[in-house]
Amino acid sequence: MSGNANYKDLTGAVSVQMRAMRASQPELMTASGQLAAAGTKDGALSRKTRELVALGIALACRCDDCIGFHVQTLVKLGTTKAELEDVLGTAVYMGGGPSMMYATHALRAFDEFSL
């Protein structure tokens, strides 16, 4: 993501495009929404824990859009910066230097969505 962009703008722009896709691909988008709901609902792991795992995967996949949406949700779920930093540390441990770079993106997103 470029240095002057922010995660609120990024997630907003992606949301607009996803609404456009919903109009042209309703079955695909409905199925995607159902998959997301099933993959993040409370179960043996809490929704917050599952979102933290998803954030770690987003770092490993180097997906800024995913980082934005998962961090936004984590802030809404009351995630502390310390919890976020622990997940980022684990992601860096598993993913090395590239994950370190995207961990800084997640910290920036957390600060933006926490305002």
Write a structural description.
The structure is a single chain. The protein has 5 helices and no strands. The longest helix is centred in the C-terminal third of the chain and has 33 residues, at 81-113. The chain has 115 residues and is mostly helical. The chain has one domain (7-113): AhpD-like.
Q: What letter string, H or E per element, gives the SSE order?
A: HHHHH
The parts where pLDDT drops under 50 for at least 5 residues are none
Write down the overall geometry: globular
Question: Number of DSSP helices?
Answer: 5
Rg calculated over all Cα atoms = 14 Å
Helix- and strand-based class? mainly alpha
Average pLDDT over all residues:
95
Q: CATH class, please? A: Mainly Alpha
Care to count the β-strands?
0
Work out the strand percent: under 5%
**Largest sheet descriptor:** none
Instruction: Measure the end-to-end span.
Output: 20 Å
Residue share in helix: over 70%
CATH architecture: Up-down Bundle
Domains counted in the coordinates: how many? Answer: 1
CATH topology: AhpD-like
Query: CATH superfamily, called what?
Result: AhpD-like
Pfam family, one: CMD
Organism: Paraburkholderia bengalensis
Protein name: Carboxymuconolactone decarboxylase family protein
Domain Carboxymuconolactone decarboxylase-like: 26-108
Give a quick rundown of the structure.
The chain is an all-alpha fold and 115 residues long.
List the helices and strands and how they pair.
Layout: H1 7-24, H2 26-40, H3 47-61, H4 64-76, H5 81-113
Helix pairs in contact: 1-2, 1-4, 3-4, 3-5, 4-5
